[in-house]
Amino acid sequence: MRHNRKRYDYHFRVGEWVMVVKKDWDKYKMKERLKGPYQILETRTNGTVRLQMPGDMIQTVNIRKLRPYRGPDDATQAMQQHQTDLQHFAEARRQGLILPQAIGPLSQ
User: Fold this and answer.
1) CATH number at residue 26
2) Which of 2, 19, 21, 42 has the fewest C-beta atoms under 10 angstroms from its C-beta?
């Protein structure tokens, strides 16, 4: 059928990590579209899965609202590492372990 041609058939299994599509997502805004990752606790034959949410909450979600979690990509990991490096640098500078450097040529 024509309306199903872009649909990917994905079979979720217990123990896999998934992302959930947000209800209030606006495709014209720069908001995150997915939230998660959450672990699958149980799959059901009616097209739903039970997810372990933060804390001790368990939520039942339709599989059409799920996307497989692929892990952080290289760009995200590099950005997180850069942020961590900046925080360490700022902390070392506050403690006086690193002296500020002059920018540009020194004039005498």
Assistant:
1) 2.30.30.140
2) 2
